[in-house]
Amino acid sequence: MQKNTKLLQLKDLLDDPSHPTSMPIYQSATFAQMDIDNLGKYDYSRSGNPNRDIVESKLAALEDAKHAFLFNSGIVAIHVVFELLSADDHIIVADDLYGGTHRLLGLLQQKNIFISYVDTSDATNIINTITAKTKMLLVETPSNPLQKIVNLSEISEICKKHNLLLAMDNSLLSPWWQQPLKFGVDIVVHSATKHLSGHSDTTAGVICTNNDEIATKIKFLQNALGVALAPFDCWLLYRGLKTLPLRAKAAQDNTLKIVEYLKTESIIKHIYYCGIKSHPGFAIHKSQSDGFGSVLSIDTGNTLLSKKIVNLSNLFAITVSFGSVNSFISIPVNMSHASVPKDKLIVPPSLIRLSIGIEDADDLIDDLKQAIKIALIN
Ligand SMILES: *Cc1c(COP(=O)(O)O)cnc(C)c1O
What we know:
By secondary structure, the protein is an alpha/beta fold. It has 13 helices and twelve strands. The protein has helices spanning 3-8, 50-63, 74-82, 99-110, 123-127, 152-161, 174-177, 212-225, 231-241, 244-263, 282-288, 303-312, 361-377, and strands at residues 67-71, 90-94, 114-118, 134-140, 165-169, 187-191, 205-209, 270-272, 295-299, 317-318, 328-330, 351-355. It has a seven-stranded mixed β-sheet, with helices on both faces. Strand 2, helix 4 (99-110) and strand 3 (114-118) form a beta-alpha-beta unit. The longest helix is centred in the last third of the chain and has 20 residues, at 244-263. It binds pyridoxal-5'-phosphate. Pyridoxal-5'-phosphate binds next to helix 3 and helix 4.
């Protein structure tokens, strides 16, 4: 069965005596037991809830994972992955991770966990940083917002050889375009707030793994910390998830058209998008993904000019986040990456990030055209 069919089939709902064709919301904190000796599947929603089980099974199907666990945000999912580390451990992370992950790494440092920030698009940097205490490697590919590409098969070999857990944040592409577990990644995390939910109406996070031992620890933490996704948010997430295949295709088609237009604007000095053939990681990316996604960055090299373009766009909301049906525009250094310490910041302040939605591509292009034109004369 293909991913889209698995996503939409209703078998999970057949346990419900009313046979609904849309997932009902089990908005209950507690579940009654029929008999004190034979306890049922559910007792308390922190530990387990039918909505969470159903949506977790859909996400596992999408990632082709054995296990999936839902959390109330992407950042909490990443926090739970970090809980697998102990004091004195060492973790290697990509130097251009999501800004909120950087903030979380600051907390890890306070717990005496040692962190190395390296350019993970070059595997030799990883090899040169591994010590006897290294326990985990965390990467993003394509990275956000610079779209650096990590060779997953190559780094998973390195991790296996040195007994490291390989964790990857797959938020930027979603499992529709990329399934990192197939390339030897041990743990995949997503901010489900982005493409998976797709409508900017809830925050959510997911961890996927094929490793039973890791799954047991994650399941324990989900209950022990009380950070699982609530029933209504599970419902919203599944409502959005059902159209992920359609949204992902429409947004990527728009993005490819917009990139073609942006190539004709001489004021754009660089386009960061893994779908451009001249991208240094294009071949590696194509070998491990089925698509390029709908997020790209552009640089004018002039911060004032970039800010003017952002302010002059009408159809793009100036907002953090990406992966919505609506198009967004932002300056990462001022917004999503504001929490990255100055000495760790490798994103240029003039960089504009675009997240393309499912509006009409020509309308979006016309809007960028007018913003660039007016920015240049003012
Ligand atoms: C947004 C984001 C996160 C954090 O997820 P939240 O749902 O906002 O908590 C983590 N990683 C990446 C790549 C993101 O874009």
